[in-house]
């Protein structure tokens, strides 16, 4: 109830709370490691109460991140993790932060999640559904598995990723068959030790199960080497699916593709509107391998870098003609 009688280790504190509790975790002088942690089902929230674990610096509510050096599994429903900084090298397909299967109602807010491992591993694996807001997610690995990224939203699962900075060889990978996916207002660029090959890679159909609704909107991507948004497979015709890609700013490295369709059987369906794309392998590579009749409107062909200093994380639009100025005038 106060710092004077607080728990001295995090695992004991987690084991002592109940569903609907709010646990404050104070930042220590160095990155804390109490072993791999499980936010287990015994602390499930309910339809009327969330269970919250929140880091702080000097005063609860100051939004300072508690620094942790081991993996965290979220196995509790209606659960919020906020103000945590988790960094480690994890050679685990579940990454550094894992939202477990059959776990609903998870929110991750203002967290930094960094997997420093250089192998084919994500920083976050979402095996059910979750909402990620105002987070920084980084993976230093060479991620090659289809639909895996710094954030991986697993097969047949759903997610919302909003207002995050995402860095890695692939930013977000997802297989949301039969579910929904919302990716909005995020920044994508290279990890400290890895170029970004793809910003978003999504397979919209899994064994005949199509995504029901997907929105990719208002994201900024810088110096992607391969593809900004890569759609591996589109929903089949007449499957009650709605897909929109809008208001994204995508700057390549001189030889990439902006928005790509990898499905030769289905070449229409998504609504592609008001995206600004440049520095690809030519304007024909801005929106590629869709039918000529696809619903594409208002694409801006950028001729100059639109960002102030994106290589160092400053994604404000500049005033350069053909760059940031072209985005503002659209």
Q: Determine the structural class based on helices, strands and strand pairing.
A: mainly beta
Number of H/I helices: 2
For the termini, the CA-CA separation is 54 Å
What proportion of the residues is helical, as a percent range? Answer: under 10%
Biggest sheet layout: 19 strands, parallel
Give the total of beta strands.
34
Radius of gyration: 20 Å
Beta-strand portion reads 35-45%
Query: What ranges have pLDDT less than 50 throughout 5 or more consecutive residues?
Result: none
Shape: globular
How much is the average pLDDT?
94
Oligomer: single chain
Report what the structure shows.
The protein has helices at 10-16, 324-329, and strands at residues 22-26, 37-39, 51-56, 66-68, 72-74, 79-82, 84-88, 97-99, 106-109, 112-115, 124-126, 129-133, 136-139, 151-153, 158-162, 165-167, 170-174, 180-184, 187-189, 198-203, 205-206, 209-210, 213-217, 220-224, 227-233, 242-246, 249-261, 271-273, 276-280, 287-288, 295-297, 300-302, 307-309, 314-317. The chain has 330 residues and is mainly beta. It has a 19-stranded parallel beta sheet that branches. An eleven-stranded parallel beta sheet has the order 1-3-6-9-12-15-18-23-26-28-31, with helices on one face. Strand 21 and strand 22 (209-210) form a beta hairpin. The N and C termini lie far apart (54 Å).
């Amino acid at each position: 109830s106060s710092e004077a009688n607080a728990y001295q280790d995090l695992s004991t504190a987690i084991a002592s709370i109940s569903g609907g509790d709010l646990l404050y975790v104070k930042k220590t002088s160095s990155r804390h490691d109490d072993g791999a942690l499980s936010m287990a089902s015994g602390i499930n929230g309910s339809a009327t109460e969330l269970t919250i674990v929140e880091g702080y610096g000097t005063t609860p509510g100051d939004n300072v991140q508690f620094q942790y050096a081991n993996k965290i599994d979220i196995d509790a429903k209606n659960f919020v993790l906020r103000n945590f900084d988790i960094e480690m090298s994890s050679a685990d397909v579940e990454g550094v932060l894992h939202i477990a299967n059959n776990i609903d109602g998870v929110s991750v807010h203002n967290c930094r999640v960094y997997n420093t491992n250089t192998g084919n591993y994500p920083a976050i694996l979402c095996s059910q559904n979750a909402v990620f807001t105002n987070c920084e997610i980084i993976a230093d690995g060479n991620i090659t598995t289809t639909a895996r990224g710094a954030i991986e939203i697993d097969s047949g699962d759903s997610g919302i990723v909003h207002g995050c900075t995402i860095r890695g060889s692939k930013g977000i990978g997802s297989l949301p068959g039969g579910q929904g996916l919302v990716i909005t207002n995020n920044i994508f660029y290279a990890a400290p030790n890895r170029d970004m090959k793809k910003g978003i890679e999504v397979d919209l159909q899994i064994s005949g199960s199509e995504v029901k609704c997907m929105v990719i909107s208002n994201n900024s991507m810088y110096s992607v080497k391969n593809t900004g948004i890569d759609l591996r497979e589109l929903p089949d015709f007449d499957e009650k699916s709605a897909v929109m890609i809008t208001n994204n700013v995508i700057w390549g490295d001189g030889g990439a593709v902006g928005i790509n369709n990898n499905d030769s059987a289905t070449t229409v369906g998504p609504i592609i509107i008001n995206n600004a794309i440049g520095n690809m392998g030519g304007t024909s590579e801005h929106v590629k391998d869709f039918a000529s009749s696809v619903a594409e409107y208002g694409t801006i062909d950028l001729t100059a870098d639109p960002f102030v200093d994106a290589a160092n994380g400053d994604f404000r639009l500049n005033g350069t003609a053909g760059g940031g100025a072209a985005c503002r005038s659209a």
